[in-house]
Each structure stands twice: as structure tokens, then as C-alpha cells.
Protein 1
Amino acid sequence: MDGPVALPDAIQPMAVADSQRSALKARVLEWAHIFGTVGSSQLLVQGLSFLGGILIVRWLPSSEYALYTLANAMLATMSLLANSGISDGVMAESGKVWRDPKKLGAAIATGFSLRRRFAVGSIVIGGPILVYLLHSHGASWTKGGVLFVSVAINFWFCALGSIYSVVPALHQRVSLIQRIAAIQGIARIFGLALTVIAFPTALMALIPTAVAQAWASFRLRVATYRIVPSGLAEDPHVKSEVFKIVRRVLPNVIYMSLWSQLSIWLISICGDTDAVARLGALGRLGQLFVVFSTFAAVVFIPRFARLPAQRTLLLKRYWQTLILVISAGAACVGFVALFPQAALWILGNQYRGLVDEVILQAICSLIWFIVGIAYNLSASRGMVIRPEVNIPLQILGQGCLVALMNLNTVKGILWMSILLGGWQLAIYLADTTRQIWKLERTALIHNFG
């Protein structure tokens, strides 16, 4: 039998070069397809979301928009409390077993069990606080309670959907995720057109979002259980590993739940109802960065979670991702800085005088967008900053800024938020780089110690 034919020495380098070029071409085509699929879908999804937000800003009276802003701020805070590192832990553990449907399904079942318990706790904590804040800005106790119920429904389905999305994301079912998001956006914008224009109240602005979120969570559930078995028991090992992350993240989350929406809370306490409405309206411009944030959540973060524990590779991908998203975000800020009146025209006549504020809001949104990406990349690997390090540093920064800044104006609140975001980003970058740098040393100690 003839053996394999050896290539002449002169031909071998050419064969290797051809192989490398083919691999590079395949990789370029793969990323071009991903960027084309996600990019076009996200332009549609976030365009619809942005249009819905502007519809709300333009049609709601400032008193109702202030209530809507407070409700959304509490929704974000409750989402942080309900997460408490659970999604990060589930992503980190699922990334290790994503090729095994049963192990992956057990990891997801564990995440659901934990998420439901934390979600109930978040509702119990957030309800009375939100109702009180709404009442302090003109809502009756009954109206405040009804608004909270609509927030709670949206929050519940959003909390479940974040776990359901782990499996399709790890298996890179990008088209499916984007299709669900697109239909969700279309349903929301049609719902808002039917409700807000006819009944311009905060409640009518919240209901279509909750309905669309419920549908999206159901569709993600169906997609998840087409890949993994349903009804599996919790995995004790996964639960233990997730709790390791939760124990480290929870103190940070409790603290973050206060300062992540610090601008809204401070202006609601120190300012008047119109100031709350102005800050909330400016915050709508943060939608500029949601396209990039969603792209990172669907593509970059799951791929980063799947990478082998190699120091050089992780550092390279970490900084490549951050440089890419910073460049894209800076282009958006540059547009707002060059054409601030165009951005204010979108918000409507009642906000047309906020020229300096709209530029500051764009910078603020970019800073916090980068903070979110930096944190989620490291958390997807289970590398979470220790709370005994993070919280004192954050309190130090906040204490200095609260003492020095004028918090009675929208401009003062925005400057404080920009500086706080820069401080938080510096802390995350330093800690993540340190944790990645010591990975191989830890592995050597484990293997030979």
C-alpha cells in the first residue's frame, strides 16, 4: 500500500502559506457575516427603540415623563439586584460545558432557580421605595402602586429572559436572537403608538414595553429548550460556583444599585419634577450606544467566555474589544458635539435650550457604556473585583464629588456622573488586567504545587 506522499521542501512553505491564507479568509468572511447580520438587525431594533423613546419624550407632559423616568430608574436598579452576579456565573459555567446539552441544561436550571429567588427579593425591596418617590413627585398612592405593578411585570420577564438568552448566545444563534429582538421592538413601537398618543400617561408608556418583553422571554425560552433538555435538576457544582461569584458580586451590586441610577435619585431629591424630566429626556440619547452594547453582549462576550485560560490571548481580546467599542462610541459623541441642536430637535421643543447638557450626556453615556462592557467581559470569565476593594474606592470617589459638585442642576449631576464613570472604569481595567495576568501563574501553582 502506498504511504502518504511527502511534499518537496520547496513546496511545504507554500502549502502552509496557502493554508494560513484560507484560514484568514474564512475568519474574515465569518466576521463579515456576523457584523452584517447583527449590525443590520441592531440598526433596526435600536432604531425602533430610539423612536419609541422619542415618542414617549415628545408626547408625555413633563410631569408624566418624570414619573416614567423614576419608574425606569427603579427597573434598572431592581434588575441589578436580581442579577447579583447570577447571569455572569451562569455564563461562566455554561461556557465550560456549552457543547454538552445535559450539563448546559443543568447550568441553566440552576440559574433559573437562583434568579427567581433574587427577583422576588428585588420586588419586595423596590416596590415601597418606588411608590414613595412617585408620590413625592405628584402621583397618588394608587397611581404609584399601579405604576409599580407594570414595572414589576416588565422586570420579571426581563429577569427570566436574561437567563434564557445564555444558551442561544453561547451557540451563536445570532440571527434568532436578532429576529426576536426585532419583533419585540416592532411590537413595542406599535403598542406605544396606540397607547401614548391617545392616553399620554406614564402607565400607557410602560404597558407596551412589558407586553413586548413577555413575548420575547417566551420566545427565548422556546429557543433554549430546543438546544438543551427541560426539567433538569439543579447542578450542585454549578450552584456552588455561581454562589462564589454571587458572594463576591452581591456587595458590589447592593452598592451599584444605589449609584448606578445616582443621577436620577439625586436630582429627584435635590431638584424639582422638571429637572427629573430633563435628565430623563437627555438619557434617551444613551440609546446611541445600545447598538454597540447589544452587539457586544451577543457576539463578543460569549466568545470571550469560551476562550481558553491563556493570559496573552485573553489580554489581547480584552483590549481589542474595548478599543473597538471606544472607537465606535467616540464617533457618536463627536456627532452630538458637532450638531447638538439636531440631537435636541429629536427630543422636542421643551428641551431645546439644553445645548451644553446634551453634549455632557453623550460623553456620560459613552463612559458608562465602556464601563459596562469592561465589567461584563471580565465577569463572563468569573473575574469579579473584590467588594472590599471596589466599594471603599467608590465611596472615596463619590464622597469627594458630592462635596465639590453642585447637585441642584442637571449640568452638575452630569459632570459628577462622567467623573464617577471614569473613576469606575480605571478601577475595572486595573483589576481585570491584574486577574488575567496572574492566570497562568495560578495554573502552575495548581498543577505543580
Note: Confidence is low (pLDDT under 50) at residues 442-449.
Protein 2
Amino acid sequence: MQKKYQPSNGTERMIFQAAHCDMCSKDRYTEDHPERGCSILCNALMYSVDDKEYPQQWCVINGKPTCTAFKARKNPTQRNRRSKKTNLNQLKLL
């Protein structure tokens, strides 16, 4: 069994999310369609690494954090993420 990965702070989470979630075809979240968001990302944000609901997909492989469910977008420049306004509001919470 691999060691689960949980970012140690908000900055580390944002870096991980930018490298994985924001470029993954599984996360198609938009403000108009929040139900298209990735359940793996949602569970990682909602639960503690010790909870049974915490995603097994976020783990450490060869010393690097990764998501084993990652599937690159066909068009990596296409990012259906939250608006800049929402991202700024998230930063205020950190």
C-alpha cells in the first residue's frame, strides 16, 4: 500500500492542484456546472488523510506526490476552472 499524500498547507495544495487537477480531464468544474467537479479533489479537501473517505489516488510514488487517477486533458490550455474572482476569494481564506 502506498503512502497517502496530503498537502501540508494551502500553498502546497495550490501547487499540486495546478499541476494535476487543473490539467486533468476528470475535473470539468465550472461555476455554471459545479457537479462536474472531481470527487477525488473534493474528498481530498473535505477529509483528513486518516479518514476512510480520503482518496487513495492522492499518494506518494518515488518520493513525489501524485494522483493515480490523473488523465491529461486533450487540450492542456483548456482550463475549466473557477473564475479569477473565486480564486482570489480562496486565497483570502489561506
Note: The first helix runs from residue 10 to 19.
Protein 3
Amino acid sequence: MSVLFVVMIGLSVWYLSRREPLVIQGEVQSRTFDMAARVDGRVAQVTVARSENVRQGAPIIRIDNPELIAKYHQSQADLAVAEAELARVKAGFRAETIAVRKAQMERAAADLTLAQQTYDRKRQLAASHDAPQADLDKATAELAVAERGREQARFAYNEAVAGFTREDLGIAEAKVETAKAGVETLRSLVDQMVVVAPADSQVFRIPVEDGEFVLPGIPLITLVDLADMWVQFDLREDLLRDVKVGTRLTVRVPALNDRAVELEVRIIGAKGEFTGWRATRATGDFDLRTFEVRAYPTQAVEGLRPGMSVYTDWSDLRR
């Protein structure tokens, strides 16, 4: 009887003093790319399949947008016109143009000489009352027109000889730069008609089909970078006192036959989330926040996939 009593006392002491396990669960995550295009249009071709491995820069989706292609070609034509105009301004007026304007100036000078002679005769005749005043008025008007014509011809000839002004050159150069910017803008959009993989990754989800109309910013495909995986823990703040960047811990992966995997903590959230743990008592206790902790495998783990769960006894870390 005394032996049974001692055994019962021993079991009670062991039960009361035994260490309760503190199991913490985490989830495997990885870098994910939700690829979208900057242009609208119809999906011309999806070049990959789900779960397919793709290399960085490989085309994965092609978008068809004939209107955008036409605008791009139009911008190229506008650039060619602007460049031709700039070349014309730099070259100045052709010799033939200068000769024509010189001839126009000489003809205008001859017209002015004739108009002056006619005016002089009409004025003398009108003074002697041998011609009506109306003839003198007409000759006066023709003389004024001839003078303005000669001035305009002289200005045109001087302009041809001097060439274009610096202001004209600046305007032509600005038009070329504007046209180039338009071409570059449309070229960047045309390049976006082919969506490429940003890194070596694996296709996870393809929510679009061939021929479907898509809009800018709408995810077309999701890629997962299996070379950049980590385990995320959402820990109460009271569990962080034994954790720092560089801390190593061993977790178990149920999906891999409870395989042990060593992790290293590299990121600890800078600020706790407000959707955390609530106090268990109305007084004498306080709410606990949740911090995100990312731990990376110290070596590659074959078969580890995003979404798998891991667990560990956090008490082992605190001993």
C-alpha cells in the first residue's frame, strides 16, 4: 500500500512539474509575381502551361492590339517629318529659292519705278488741268501699292539670304524631341504586349484564356519563385524575447514525412499588427500584438513547396 502511495505521489509531482509543449505553426511562402500588362487588348497566345518552369525573360503571354501598333507607326512617321523639317531649317534656303526671290525683288523695284513715273506725269497733268483728279488719285494708290510690294520682296530676299533664325531652329529641334518622346512612349507600350518572366520561376495560375479581352493592371498570370522560399510565423510579442535575426530553429514539415528542417531567422516585423491576441482577463492583463517573423532554410529542401505547414516546439528555443 505504501508503494502505491509513493508511486501516486511521484506521478503527481511529475505531472505538475512537466514542461508543457508550446507548439508554433508556420507556413511556407515564396516570392510571387502577379504579372499584368500595361496595355489592353486580346490575349493572342498563352505560351506556357500551369506548373511549367520558365526562364527569366521568356515570353509567357502575347497580347494583340492593332490600334496601338497603328499609333506606333504613325508616331514613327511624325518623327520622320519632324527630322526632315529640322534638316531643312539647318540647310537654309536653296540657291534656286534665293534666285527666285531676287528676281521678284527686282521686278517689284521695276514696278515701283513705273508707278513713280506714272504718278509724276499724272500730277503734272492734274496741276495744269489736263487730266482729271481721279487719275491722280489712282496713280497715287498704285504708287503706294508698288512701294509696299518692293518692301515685301526685299524682306523675302533678305530672309532667304540670311536663312532661318535661331528661334526657327529651336522650334524645329523641339518638334523632333517631342516626336521622339512619342515614339519611345508607344514603343514601351508595344513592348508590353509581350509579357515576359521577371525571374526563373514556375507557373502557378493562369486566369485568362486565348482570345479574352484584358485591361491594364489586371493580373494575367501568377509565377512562383521556388528558389526564394521562407517560413512565416505570426508570433505573439511575448514570444519574441528569445528571437533575433540570426536565430536558428528546427521545424517539422508534415507534408515531407515530418522531416526536420533547420531555419534561420532573417526578418522580424518592425511593427506589430493590431489584429493580435486579446487579453484573457478584464483587469491585470493587456492585449498582445502579433509580429511577422520570416525564417529561411539554411540549405535547399527537396520537395518543399509554398503553402506547406511547419511546426515546432517553441519551448525548445527558450531553453
Note: Residues 210 and 319 are 57 Å apart (CA to CA).
